[in-house]
């Protein structure tokens, strides 16, 4: 239906390669490489798979791709456990494959962002092997956080810190040198899985090595970096270690022992100097789970990484008041930092947004985990509502000033695969919580490309099984189909490029109204009815200007249906 409303989709304008501000209002598409496309049919997506789909990505209308880690890794945490920061995992390709992919992306006018994981290496990184083979107090151990345990025999962890994935954040090693060889010895810190030892950012060698890594990829043509767990690098490791029994509670003044300490910004000031060696300067976006606006904006300053994620919309219920408040505060935050705002509904760490919206209102994070654990079913409680809201929310977001981060498969309207067989699960959360929290595999299931092919056209037998209902979401089922979610994304991204305006908006709806209505400076208007009942169209919204709708709309529209977004051209 929406397709009938759309005048012809606008053609893409030619790309300007040297525009230093390209990231400010980019639509960035996140690729989880193992699950995107599998060119060599071994069941793991790979870099040649990405290259083979550059045409698809160009047609989708995005500006950049961001690749989650593709580095050598034992995949204890889906690749966020990096063995070697300057190489490609042999199962995913080679450095030559990487170069081919970047060249193809650039040829198609797409920028390339890669993930950097500086908080921790993997336990298979050369440095960690050297640390284990060396004595306590050695320079090899000083690249990580090794500490003596508490208790008479050092049998207790050095502090009460938990790991993000469950269990303690400390693991004890068996010493391999000296008089104590073969005995239990020091403990090392890992805020995530035990295969992810935290690096010691007080150590100049660690700092220098990451500068080398940034240059390594920037020299290969990478346009930007997504910085994993950026808020955790600086830590207060002075003795005695301070108590912090919950990682969820953060001090808001830079004095928390583990997160968002003021010193972290010295590290990123150094990174910015490296990024500015290039023309155009390389972009960077911080993943900083910092709930305080005044603290978060520091990561986004031009003297720092330059941009930071906010996950506020992702965590919000589908509610006009909540959305409006978040947009207003994130735009103010961005303006104060000098960056543009970021927006995101889905990524590789959270339940896909159509599934979140399909659950009853008021479902909180714990209830979401419980839903997953209880074999969360498909169909979900109300999948039609979930997808309707997701489409409306996405169009609301794609009209906002700033960068939009999209996660692979959301353009296909994919739901969470909530009922993966338990023996297929790989997320360390599942193991480290003693099977109490299922984790993130359900949003990482390999994409369905072709309903008529084996494994839905992904490649070999996927590393996580695809459910039968994926067929209906395959690209082949949506390509050219009016009203499909894929065509909606294509239309929206094409119109977004054409209508893009200066980085601000004006609210036209009154606060408290379930219909949110905003206008960009060039006259582009976005209206979202968050209510379930149709709402009258505001007088200014003449039908002739409607270029896009997230759901069926009567022609000529008298009203805006519930849970629907409209775009009006100037
Ligand atoms: C980030 C990543 C997540 C990973 C964690 C540890 O939050 O997005 O996938 O598990 O960092 O690296």
Please provide a brief summary of the model.
Helices cover 26% and strands 12% of the residues. It is an alpha/beta fold and 570 residues long.
Please describe what this structure looks like.
Helix content is 26%, strand content 12%. The chain is an alpha/beta fold. It has a 7-stranded parallel β-sheet with strand order 8-7-3-2-1-10-9. A hairpin with a 5-residue loop joins strand 12 and strand 13 (525-529). The model has no long low-confidence stretch (mean pLDDT 94). Bound molecules: alpha-D-glucopyranose (GLC). Residues 77, 80, 117, 192, 228-229, 287, 348-349 line the site of alpha-D-glucopyranose. Residues 77, 80, 117, 192, 228-229, 287, 348-349 line the site of alpha-D-glucopyranose (GLC).
